[in-house]
Design a protein that fits this description.
Blueprint lengths: L1 H22 L3 E4 L3 E3 L4 E7 L5 E8 L7 E4 L3 E3 L4 E5 L4 E6 L4 E10 L7 E10 L1 H76 L13 H19 L2 H42 L1
Length: 281
């Protein structure tokens, strides 16, 4: 009797298993691999069937706790099935509301409340929006700081370059001034040297007043001085100067000759005109 009961239970279990297997449906779904906390995303379910199924789409944490919501005329917990929605509806809106991290997103399909459902899961990454916003803000701040630092560095480099250019120009001007000053000093030195040479020549030249006239023939000196005086007179009466004066006189006379000719011709023309006028009368 006991063996008969066990055999009956075993047969019933196999029968239920076969029934569920017959009612099982092969399906697949498509969802994003990464979403943001509290932001809506879409899940699509695919299956080759015309029968009506209930759909359950949810995200569960490490303790198998549902941490998402599904939209069915309003947002509600993903713990519940959306009844008799598939295959007339294949796309569903879901959002994760309670935690962020790496979790499992699962889809279940069942034909009725009394039948078991098939479950299919995949990984999904949930990002915290506050952390991402702060991270992006930090990145923007760091980028702005880098840009400001690069601008300040470029400005300092330009200032340093301008300073070096100014120093080079100043040094060139200073070198030019020093060179001019040295040239002036050299000119003055040359003049001083020339003056010193002249003074030395004057010192070396004998002074006639210091000559001992007792040793010189007075008559010879007198003749020499008389010759120098005569020679000076000849130089004063320079024939070149006389030639210049005579040539200037000739040039003046020759330049006034055409004026005289023009005046004579004018007088002659006036006389001829008067004679012709008198003849007509």
């Amino acid at each position: 009797m006991k063996h008969t009961v066990i055999k009956f239970i075993f047969m019933a279990f196999i029968f239920l298993f076969l029934v569920n297997l017959a009612n099982a449906l092969e399906f697949s779904f498509n969802s994003p691999s990464s979403v943001k906390l509290n932001e809506e995303f879409k899940v699509k379910v695919f299956a080759s069937t015309t029968e009506v199924f209930d759909v359950k789409i949810y995200v569960k944490d490490f303790n198998d706790k549902v941490i998402s919501e599904i939209y069915d005329q309003s947002w509600k917990s993903s713990f519940y099935f959306v009844k008799e929605s598939f295959p007339s509806r294949t796309e569903y809106s879901v959002r994760v509301t309670k935690a962020y991290g790496s979790f499992d997103i699962c889809v279940k399909l069942r034909k009725s409340e009394k039948t078991t459902s098939n479950e299919l899961c995949s990984k999904i990454e949930v990002e915290d929006t506050s952390l991402s916003d702060s991270f992006s803000a930090q990145n923007s701040n760091s980028n702005s700081n880098q840009n400001s630092n690069s601008n300040s560095n470029s400005e300092s480099a330009n200032n340093y370059k301008n300073t070096n250019d100014e120093e080079k120009d100043n040094s060139k001007d200073k070198n030019n001034d020093d060179e001019k000053e040295n040239n002036g000093k050299n000119v003055v030195t040359d003049k001083d040297n020339n003056n010193e040479d002249k003074d030395i020549d004057n010192r070396d030249s004998p002074d006639l007043s210091s000559v001992n006239y007792s040793k010189i023939n007075y008559q010879y000196l007198n003749n020499t001085l008389q010759a120098e005086v005569d020679e000076g007179k000849i130089i004063l009466n320079n024939p070149i100067k006389d030639k210049i004066k005579s040539s200037s006189t000739l040039i003046t006379k020759e330049s006034s000759l055409p004026l005289y000719l023009l005046l004579a011709f004018s007088i002659f023309a006036i006389l001829v005109t008067i004679l012709l006028a008198l003849r007509k009368l």
